[in-house]
Specification:
Length: 306
């Protein structure tokens, strides 16, 4: 059986469904496990995710080869999800937004490596680590499934939305982790920076990325209208802002709000690039209609979440 067949839409769809079915009970899976199993599970899940992300062939691989298309026919799907002249989505983050993946991947490596090498079962953080291990492992599984589903071969009917569903799964899993450590008391600054900050960043970014991915996939549709793309784009910014403000206030979580603000500021900057690139274009075209209000709506949302 080839790797391609293992990443076919029905297989990845079934695995995604299985992960969602695990969500309600996942937090208790490692409560009574041997400590070496807890540490090993976190390390292995991170390793699987890191390997999966490194595999070529995703949509974002097209960004490295597409350059600056000179006509719609030469535009790739990634161009249509981007900030340029042929972009169709109204939620296209500027390229600098994705730099956040660096701190996330490095931070989570430090987290799992330090737990594996330095933390023993008698550590005061051990109960918290046990509580977040299940959701963390599931989040990394969803991340691996996202890398398999964010590919051109999934641009067929409803399969194209599987990548957004996997991103939502990451965010939902990490929300469980976040709820545990956000409500904990007496966590030192050092322990927070090493063990929990990377997860807070990852949670915030995948919350926003779910909406970015959803809008991108929707805008790739051949039968969608400019008004539909605009409505989904505006609604997504409102949803992101509401989520950022509510989680920040209810969980006393400024990092989460800050990441949502980062994402919304990037969308505002990306739309500004689109407006510049489409000067003289049909103002009612997909990706152009509603772009100016979207720029300011995103900026307002970033301010509210910051």
């Amino acid at each position: 059986m080839s790797l391609s067949s293992l990443t076919s839409p029905p297989v990845i769809g079934a695995l995604t469904a299985g992960c969602y079915a695990s969500l309600p009970a996942i937090q208790g899976w490692f409560q009574n496990a041997d400590w070496v199993v807890v540490k090993g599970a976190n390390l292995a899940a991170y390793g699987l995710s890191f390997w999966a992300v490194s595999q070529p062939g995703r949509y974002d691989s097209q960004a490295k080869i597409s350059g600056n298309p000179t006509s719609p026919a030469k535009a790739t799907d990634m161009d249509r999800m981007g900030t340029g002249k042929y972009g169709r989505t109204l939620v296209p983050p500027a390229g600098w937004a994705f730099a956040i993946w660096g701190p996330i991947f490095i931070g989570e490596f430090v987290m799992v490596a330090s737990q594996a090498a330095l933390m023993d079962e008698g550590d005061s953080l051990a109960p918290l680590i046990r509580s977040i291990t299940g959701p963390h492992v599931l989040a990394q599984c969803f991340q691996s499934l996202w890398t398999a589903s964010f590919r051109p071969k999934y641009n067929n009917g409803y399969w194209k939305y599987l990548s957004a569903l996997n991103l939502a799964g990451i965010a939902l899993s990490l929300s469980q982790c976040h709820e545990v450590f956000a409500s904990a008391e007496n966590i030192s600054t050092k322990d927070y920076l090493v063990n929990f900050l990377p997860l807070a960043l990852h949670f915030g970014w995948t919350s926003a990325a779910t909406l970015v991915n959803l809008n991108g996939m929707f805008a790739l549709g051949q039968n969608v209208t400019a008004k539909q793309v605009t409505a989904l784009g505006h609604a997504s910014v409102v949803a992101a802002t509401t989520l950022g403000v509510s989680v920040t206030l209810t969980r006393d979580a400024p990092v989460y709000g800050g990441v949502i603000a980062w994402a919304l500021a990037a969308v505002s900057a990306g739309i500004a690039q689109r407006i510049e690139a489409t000067k003289g274009s049909d103002p009612k075209a997909i990706g152009v209609l509603g772009s100016k209000p979207q720029r300011y709506l995103s900026l307002a949302g970033a301010v509210l979440c910051a």
